[in-house]
Amino acid sequence: MNTASLKQEYKERIVPTLMKEFGYKSVMQVPVLEKIVINQGLGEAVADKKVIEIAINELTAITGQKAVPTLSKKDISNFKLRKKMPIGVRVTLRRERMYEFLERLIRVVLPRIRDFNGIQSKLDGRGNYTLGVTEQIIFPEINIDSISKLLGMNITFVTSAATDEEGFALLKEFGLPFKK
């Protein structure tokens, strides 16, 4: 599979389409996908340190880039939480890896979801979109037999769009299957 195909498609097809749709005067006004951030919150890591290592390995396998643990900012005694304890894992994808991941997500991963009929079309007000995935087994890189626990994740698409409408149009052009 050609990794630059989505990037090429963005330049050749998506930019002219969006310029026409929103009446941009310059190519530089067209919104661009800046990064994809994949985040897993792992509250149970407080009790079990192995959870973080497993999550890092899985997320690294899924994205092809080393995942980093996210640390707690303060002590919360009710949750047995100390400052700087690992409580999550995240990866930020940019450039080639970002397009590669987006392509795999659209063409392979989302169609594997049971009873799939599109993703919610609610953006955050600044043209960014977060997709919640309930289990990591929809990714082909994950070996189902080696899983001890189902872990969900948030996949955030950060765009340079000024409005939700522009961000939505950009992501729709990339091929994200939004609900009608």
Quick description:
The protein has 180 residues and is α+β, with helices and mostly antiparallel strands. It is built from four helices and five strands; from the N terminus they run H-E-H-E-E-H-E-E-H. It has a five-stranded antiparallel β-sheet with strand order 2-3-1-5-4.
Question: Which structural traits does this protein have?
Answer:
alpha+beta, 5-stranded antiparallel beta sheet, 180 residues
Outline the structure in words.
The chain has 180 residues and is an alpha+beta fold. It is 32% helix and 18% strand. The chain has four helices and five strands. Strands 2-3-1-5-4 form a five-stranded antiparallel beta sheet. Helix 1 packs across helix 4. 26% of the residues are buried.
